[in-house]
Fold:
Amino acid sequence: MNQDYIKPDNWSIIEEGFDFERAKSSESLFSIGNGAMGQRANFEENYTGPTFQGSYIAGIYYPDKTKVGWWKNGYPEYFAKVLNAPNWIGIDIEINGENLDLATCKTISNFRRELNMKEGWYHRSFEASLQNGTEISVNVRRFLSLDLDEVGMINYEIIPLNKEAKIVYKPYIDAGVTNEDANWDEKFWEPLEVKHLENEAFVTARTFKTHFKVTTFMQNTIFANDKDLNLSPEKVDASNDKVQFSYSVTAAQGEKSSIQKMGGYTVSLNHENTLSAAENAIQKGLAKGYDQLLQEQIAAWAKIWEMSDITIEGDVKAQQGIRFNIFQLNQTYLGKDSRLNIGPKGFTGEKYGGSTYWDTEAYCIPFYMATKDQQVARNLLTYRYNQLDKAIENAEKLGFTNGAALYPMVTMNGEECHNEWEITFEEIHRNGAIAFAIFNYYRFTGDYSYIPEKGLEVLIGIARFWHQRANYSTNHNQYVILGVTGPNEYENNVNNNFYTNYIAKWCIDYTYEQIQKVSLEYPSDHKRITEKVKLTHTELHSWKQVADNMYFPYSEEHKVYLQQDGFLDKDLVKVANLDKSQRPINQKWSWDRILRSPYIKQADVLQCFYFFEEHFSKDELKQNFEFYEAFTVHESSLSPCVHSIQAAVLDKMDMAYTFYLRTSRLDLDDYNKEVEEGCHITSMAGTWMSIVEGFGGMRVKNDALHFSPKIPKEWNGYSFKINFRNQILKVSISQNETKLSLEGSKTLTVFVNGKAILVEPDNLVTV
Amino acid sequence: MNQDYIKPDNWSIIEEGFDFERAKSSESLFSIGNGAMGQRANFEENYTGPTFQGSYIAGIYYPDKTKVGWWKNGYPEYFAKVLNAPNWIGIDIEINGENLDLATCKTISNFRRELNMKEGWYHRSFEASLQNGTEISVNVRRFLSLDLDEVGMINYEIIPLNKEAKIVYKPYIDAGVTNEDANWDEKFWEPLEVKHLENEAFVTARTFKTHFKVTTFMQNTIFANDKDLNLSPEKVDASNDKVQFSYSVTAAQGEKSSIQKMGGYTVSLNHENTLSAAENAIQKGLAKGYDQLLQEQIAAWAKIWEMSDITIEGDVKAQQGIRFNIFQLNQTYLGKDSRLNIGPKGFTGEKYGGSTYWDTEAYCIPFYMATKDQQVARNLLTYRYNQLDKAIENAEKLGFTNGAALYPMVTMNGEECHNEWEITFEEIHRNGAIAFAIFNYYRFTGDYSYIPEKGLEVLIGIARFWHQRANYSTNHNQYVILGVTGPNEYENNVNNNFYTNYIAKWCIDYTYEQIQKVSLEYPSDHKRITEKVKLTHTELHSWKQVADNMYFPYSEEHKVYLQQDGFLDKDLVKVANLDKSQRPINQKWSWDRILRSPYIKQADVLQCFYFFEEHFSKDELKQNFEFYEAFTVHESSLSPCVHSIQAAVLDKMDMAYTFYLRTSRLDLDDYNKEVEEGCHITSMAGTWMSIVEGFGGMRVKNDALHFSPKIPKEWNGYSFKINFRNQILKVSISQNETKLSLEGSKTLTVFVNGKAILVEPDNLVTV
Structure:
């Protein structure tokens, strides 16, 4: 049974009632972020119940010393992980001498959380009866400004319900925080300097080793019935890593008292002097004030939604799911800064270290290409270009030569920071996705300039890797790739993983073609690059030998490509016949049992069909989909979206809808029983794909948009927008018809079910 | 270049000259042990140079919390490791106010170590000039009594060479020790009680968690020119885990001063009250005194050598090598106690946790069967019988049912304590060696009684495991075993490892036969066992299905069994063509590169041919040997011995001799560049096999000994003794002839090169 306490709502995530048991799940689900920073929905006031405290700053990481059993050559010494950042949200509250703590109140009623996705704020309200008999009503709103992205705002209101209350507000900032997943229980922050002046305070700390400097700041204003009391702190407690102010007020029964706390971070990634930057940030925030900042927040989110919203009519849970996914993606990454990337948990947890995985290229780029300016996707590509030297170094550590590049499996700064040999050394398919993203970017945007400027060097490094990584098998009289882990991580160290072999061949072929094209169309770039990387004709010939003679495992009996050599030796019991008590198998079975079973975490043969759909016939897709779907347990968050898309292609609409719900509500309904640790951000882009590419059937072929619209029987209609080459196309699909409308100045020819349709600006076309 | 500082000598290991760089190597090589305890050759006096301190007690272990990267289901929580035990050898020495420390002396000359293997003692002597100008000559002898195996003796003599010296002897015992390989830098010993009285002191401590109690004791006597001075300590420093005495004497120039320190351990494995046991141990030791204990030591070792010595004429290095191996095996394990087993490093280091591996059954048992009373081998078998319940639990953790047993890869107490999935969960071939040892024990000793009494239950648990572990492949129409690591650990998670499949089938077949035999010959045992384990005819039938239809990978092209599926897809470059700078590959290459290479740590197809030689023709052996030898890098200490034996069978005598030298002098010449960490004890039994089974060609067939004597051209002759069913046969082989002589009362028919020879007691036969 999955969790189901989140109230269905078109625009908000709502929880009603307080439950210790689900506090950590809610802390994940109600997380807020603004691309530059983010935090779990921890309470501002002290809370002694189970909680997972987390506040994160984009791009700030710590190279934690790795923890392994037996060391293997080539393992990285450090695992770069996102840091739990200093706390700026904390406000201890005293009511008539008693510390407010939801874990110790006599009763709590009308507890409610709302994450308003439309307007970008998080609100919490409750009534509590304290041990000392005081009853209060509390309303807290918090948001992280999209416009001033170093600034967050909290408005914390208290109304005594049954008597007068002396309220002490004790807002603080604290750099004395730790990571739950610290390998060696070390502190990651070194306090440097503490400053406070009137209602403002600053704690500057830097990370050990990486020496990122961060000033955490706060500014506080106390109100009575919304009137500024112009109070100064009556007490200041300052240590070397924490400052806490105390403000005492007395509120009559029924009278509203409140504190507005502004806080946030300024970081050395962006400022020479983080302290003066923090002082500036407070000045800018005060100049606007809480109300204006909130109005601007609503406007900024309206602008994001204007472009990226997907509407679904007649299915509130489906609507809530897709908006939650789109909202979280935008909270995590807005594409402003090519030094940043998209961590699998965004700002909602520590797991996976906040680092960059192949998820970005394989799943996230299509979403950002279609819903943002194309510069955003280009920034994501540039991130890898900037790390090419380190990818070459990484390959050298593993014995490759001649500029071969192996991008890390997990990285913060371009260096590998994962160490399980079967993943770090063997899950090399990631290199393929990075090349595919370059192809995909050009296919979608038509912006070829990236390739001669930057992409070709990346492609050459990757092609060189595959060329060296394959070896000639006299047995097959073809080239083979031995000892890999494919995207299906429930197989380790296999030979000839179909997906890996296929994308390896494709990478070489595609790079070869781009070298020809650049040589003809961008000769000076061609000269610059080939001289820099010392490319010879002999080398290119040798690449082609490998690509033209790659071995692909295939079953004549089943008429499917084989996931890897030997797959048919398994005991091929389908998932449908697997005892339910054994699932999820990753929580029930030992690793060897998973490995020798036929069960698939995410089907990588199908991932190959997804990337290279046009290389295969629909019959082939059907054959392979039906074969592998039967063995797939979808214990990867990246699995259901691809299945949903392919089920739609194959007109298996019930299945497509089931997979859609699973991907879109993976976290809200906690399918994988792990949302406490954070949300699955990167797979949320897959949810977007499952509507746009799955139901909508969007493809780009020959520089044109194609759609083959389908609609689940549960829906009345749905709509989405696509930024296609700087023109915004809105697509609305109902049970009967498809409507197309265009913003911009030019006409656009799109294809619906293969038929060319001319769409003119501001002129609705119905098909 | 291997190390070569050990002086060739027939009976001793000798080092001359002092070198910081090799101090840790020598600490390993000069280790002493008596089966119950042992220690590295650490100096008694304080030494501030590089040192690896180690003293170990058989059977005393600590379950250290495991350290892994990403946790996998089924991993054990603890890694039981041998403990660095409290120090009882320490004697700080002050000479005219200066602390004696070989790292700070002005000069050291005539430094010499000798490990006298014939007599079982370790001696160290040197002359040193101290910073204060005093010159001294030092002689230290140390031994661990074989007869009083809780007692060790040190005789530490000092002669001032250039002036009178005030000497302060400060002997101590200290439980404040740590393991170098502690995963979390924790202390493993909890001090309980300290006691001292006159010249005796006792520190009682117990291990955390396992609560083994150990009293470490010492008793000291001070001499001048060998005359007991009847001194009592003038000063006692006692803390909660250490006692140190001080004795001051003045020695004139040229006058010998000495301390005799008796010390050791009494443990709760053997005594209710370890403190009174320690007092008793001292009394027993004092009753005999140093000189008598030394004489008894020499006599005890003479008795061991009388049975287990191998002589080699005309090749001092070969002679020294084999004696070093036999000596270390006897220092490590004497077979008195079925709770004990043989750790891969014996008492010479911490690595591999002092635990039990398959090495015992695969390599050590033949040595102990042939050179000890048969009860010793039976004790080693019983060790596994006693752990059967835990092997069944271990299999259950991995999803097996119905009493299937999987013995742990690494264990102290029957529980698995290793956690690398590719080894812990997949190196399941260990189960085969445990069954093979039962077969081998009966084949050699003729003692069938072990099987109905104990062995059959073990065999049934193992057969059940293999039956469940194999699965039917519709592809092959046979049973396959997927996802294993064979004895060649340079392949992980492979399918159909030939060795594993073969021994799995053999285990089932052999168990099936023994069930029939026991049912006919020991019907009441049969009834008892089959009722206990609930064995049915249907189950037996199902076993046979698997055994009779097991798949074995084979290459028609090369006419060899394939190490595993897909082996021929590799880039088959032979070791001879591998750049020498790349070796040892386990220090030069990343793990994935090793895995996809054809290089073999130890050839497991050949291991199968070694165990089941009679199942294959000599042509098959030749074909497989030549194929696999070309890819084998012998980076396992267990590899060269099997190659030496098979090279001898195939009349490749130069190769056999080269492999013999490599196995016998692996540690003395430090082939694998790791002797600092300790010696490779278990593979030393392989060295013995390479002479007796390799050159001597000893086999047991149909209850009779067979020999096919061969001799390397470098040797004049060699001889060994075999305890065959309580008769001692001595075999002497020269370039021209083989001589056989027999102790005992009955005649014995042995076969030499297939010809039956009747040997009568005390009547030399020359062939």
User: Anything to note?
Assistant: The mean pLDDT of chain A is 95. Chain A touches chain B through 48 residues (CB under 8 Å). The radius of gyration of chain A is 27 Å. Residues 198 and 232 of chain A are 6 Å apart (CA to CA).
